[in-house]
Amino acid sequence: MTYPNTTRRHFQLTLIALPWALAANPVRAHGEQHGKASAAVVKEQKPWGIAGEPREAKRTVEIRMTDDMKLLPNHLEVREGETLRLRAVNKGKLMHEIVIGTSEELKTHADLMKKHPGMEHDEPYMAHVPPGRRGDIVWTFNRPGDFEFACLIAGHFEAGMRGTIRVKPTA
Question: What are the backbone dihedrals phi and psi of residue 157, each rounded to the nearest 5 degrees, phi first?
Fold first, then answer.
């Protein structure tokens, strides 16, 4: 089959440009470490707070994730307005993650993860952590209330891999 010169040239340019286009806009799957360092964090107000600035985090809480489906500690207390660095440390041999949200949001997301385990997303309230690695979430808890954090990888949430966050109102 022969192509007109313009079609052939267009095809050649597409083949040349495609790798550059893919490199300029990488896709991060849920199964990879989320790329917070390479992109600006989108600050969207959520019921449980908003993405924080790392320089504003006065406290770091290490949350250990293990293959026995535990998060330690599994309860946090935070003051309204506090920016906290949650350091998710995967001590297991399985992929784990931490996602912050309301109980309802986490349950809905966990159900979606069962149906679509390769779902792509990268939000500032999530840290997806390969075995033996760590990931940080910097979050400003600017709304009082009771919230949760959990591993939403299919089956982990249902096995009890979750914790609670109480954000105490300012006086």
Answer: -60, -45
Q: Do residues 109 and 152 touch, judged by C-beta distance below 8 A?
A: yes
Q: Report pTM.
A: 0.75
Domains of the chain by residue range? 50-168
Helix (H/G/I), strand (E/B), else coil: 46:
strand
The span from the CA of 171 to the CA of 162, in Å, is 29
Fold of the CATH domain 50-168: Immunoglobulin-like (2.60.40)
**In which residue are the tokens 């500032």 written?**
124
Whole-number Å distance between alpha carbons of 84 and 171: 19
Task: Yes or no: say if 165 and 49 are a contact pair by the CB < 8 Å rule.
Answer: no
Cis before 130 (ω within 30):
no
Give tens-digit pLDDT for 120-142.
668 999 999 999 999 999 999 99
SS3 110: helix
pLDDT higher than 60, residue 26:
no
DSSP SS3 for 101: strand
What pLDDT, on the 0 to 100 scale, is given for residue 4? 55
Residue 18 has pLDDT above 90, yes or no: no
* φ, ψ at 28 (rounded to 5°): -110, 115
Q: How confident is the model at residue 20 (pLDDT cuts 50, 70, 90)?
A: very low
Task: Give the C-alpha separation, 62 to 78, whole Å.
Answer: 14
